[in-house]
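Structure (tokenized):
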């Protein structure tokens, strides 16, 4: 790849008075749909049925919700997955669904990701300007922003938040390159971040970091006593394992928002129980129910459905390149051909999704759309194994949990489809805690994971390069690392994406990731709830947009 001359450093700007962008990618429901789905994952259109109607379209032909202008006051209750009675609402920790929602309702990040385009936009920052090597970034903050307790947002709050993340070992992998010793404030709303290596897409990195909720300088023990934030709501009460009570932030920067007086997050870990709570009117919004339950909701007069597709992957399967039999590239290539992706979508996703192509991030601008779709081809898989001198059947144990979109169900499909390709696959079902525990994760030849809406570059930083915190593929490729660093240091976004796409081609040909599908997500919503047009989860993020726009019909 040729390296172009260094362009003039770009400056990402945002008018502080601009409203948040509420445009949408494709939506099945009318009017525009909502997205959240942290645990399930999301995707683009489902596979066509015999009539030419997708599975999602077939159940979402009608709209719903209140009509007219929003009304003020009232409460909306959302059924969410909680982390249990011991889960803290730490604004700088990794997210469960419940604290991911709390972070979005109570806190803000410097940047955000547009749900329509995947492009980065300013949030608490108004601009981020790199030097000509992308090793220093000057950040201007939005003026006049207040925390819910009335304190003004300052550059020191940003530096304090970064220091807490790094000091408490809570950082996303992408935060590790911030050099806090050399970073500094140069005014109440201006600071400079110094990096240990060039990162030309730092605004996207910060938008995707779910630990980067800005909290006030000097906050004491935020894991125990959640500090105030700058978002549309404030925490009124938290009963671990039960619910979080949020109230409207009177200091919120958007005049007249939020519409609600209260937003209550009710912890319900059983999807069937959440669905029953929605039907009984105990909650107003629910998801994560089994797709088989969707038809029963279509004609419920008190509920309407929304579906979205923002390119989030279903569960993926990793092959560890350091462990037999996947230390042999031929075995990895054959295993990918042994996956019946169409059947996985049909069985594991109930048709609510479409096949993947062994790469994350199809909704991101960096995604390589020009690669041919990998198909189920057991004969070619057997040929590859034979030419490599591999004795068949190849015995493989695939570890999976009933967690993530289609993880266990697609594993069971692979167990059958791989037989014709020369594999003897045993599916070992474990709990999610075991799956990510020290005895399985990164320690077995083949396992399962769930990266949802990550971009290629986010997944590579998190799982593929040396020093990645989640090295499930066992990659040790210095040439790949050097090319990735070169791409990440490229300020011209089009050239940077071309370099990312070249790396994706290498991984598509010889990599160790099986991304078999992307999934639609369906939400059930009480008819009295409006404002869901703006209620959205952007790609590669656990930041929920539009919570301030929810309202209830009086």
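Design, position by position:
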């Amino acid at each position: 790849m040729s390296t172009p001359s260094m362009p003039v450093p770009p400056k990402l700007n945002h008018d502080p008075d601009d409203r948040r962008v509420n445009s949408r990618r494709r939506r099945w429901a009318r009017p525009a749909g909502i997205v959240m789905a942290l645990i399930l994952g999301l995707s683009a259109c489902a596979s066509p049925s015999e009539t030419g109607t997708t599975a999602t379209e077939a159940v979402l032909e009608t709209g719903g919700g209140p009509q007219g202008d929003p009304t003020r006051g009232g409460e909306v209750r959302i059924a969410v997955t909680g982390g249990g009675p011991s889960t803290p609402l730490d604004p700088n920790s990794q997210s469960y669904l419940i604290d991911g929602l709390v972070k979005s309702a109570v806190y803000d990040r410097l940047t955000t990701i547009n749900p329509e385009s995947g492009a980065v936009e300013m949030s608490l920052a108004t601009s981020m300007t790199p030097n000509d090597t992308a090793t220093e970034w000057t950040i201007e903050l939005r003026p006049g922003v207040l925390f819910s307790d009335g304190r003004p947002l300052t550059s020191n709050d940003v530096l304090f938040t970064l220091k807490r993340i790094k000091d408490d070992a809570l950082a996303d992998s992408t935060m590790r390159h911030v050099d806090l010793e050399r970073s500094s404030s140069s005014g109440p709303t201006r600071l400079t971040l110094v990096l240990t290596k060039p990162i030309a897409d730092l605004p996207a990195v910060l938008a995707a970091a779910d630990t980067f909720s800005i909290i006030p300088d000097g906050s004491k023990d935020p894991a125990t006593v959640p500090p105030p934030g700058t978002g549309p709501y404030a925490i009124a009460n938290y009963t671990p394992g039960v619910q979080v009570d949020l109230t409207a932030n009177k200091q919120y920067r958007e005049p007249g928002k939020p519409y609600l007086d209260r937003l209550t997050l009710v912890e319900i870990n059983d999807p069937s129980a959440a669905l029953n709570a929605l039907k009984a009117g105990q909650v107003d919004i629910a998801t994560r129910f089994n797709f088989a339950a969707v038809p029963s909701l279509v004609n419920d007069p008190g509920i309407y459905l929304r579906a979205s597709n923002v390119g989030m992957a279903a569960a993926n399967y990793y092959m560890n390149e350091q462990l037999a039999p996947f230390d042999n590239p031929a075995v990895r290539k054959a295993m990918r051909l042994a996956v019946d992706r169409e059947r996985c979508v049909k069985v594991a996703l109930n048709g609510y999704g479409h096949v993947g192509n062994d790469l994350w991030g199809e909704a991101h601008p960096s995604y390589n759309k020009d690669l041919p779709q990998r198909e189920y081809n057991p004969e070619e898989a057997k040929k590859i194994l034979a030419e490599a001198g591999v004795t068949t059947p190849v015995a493989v144990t695939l570890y999976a949990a009933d967690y993530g979109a289609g993880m266990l169900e697609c594993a069971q499909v692979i167990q059958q489809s791989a037989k014709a390709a020369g594999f003897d696959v045993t599916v070992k079902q474990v709990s999610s805690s075991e799956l990510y525990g020290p005895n399985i994760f990164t320690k077995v030849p083949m396992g399962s994971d769930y990266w949802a809406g990550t971009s290629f570059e986010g997944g590579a930083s998190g799982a593929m390069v040396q020093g990645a915190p989640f090295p499930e593929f066992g990659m040790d490729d210095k040439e790949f690392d050097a090319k990735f660093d070169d791409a990440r240091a490229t300020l011209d976004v089009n050239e940077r994406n071309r370099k990312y796409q070249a790396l994706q081609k290498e991984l598509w040909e010889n990599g160790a990731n099986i991304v078999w599908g992307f999934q639609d997500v369906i939400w059930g919503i009480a008819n009295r709830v409006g404002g869901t047009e703006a209620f959205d989860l952007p790609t590669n993020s656990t930041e929920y947009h539009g919570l301030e726009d929810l309202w209830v019909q009086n």
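Reviewer-requested clarification: The chain has two domains: 12-224+520-552, 316-519. The first strand starts at residue 12 and ends at 13.
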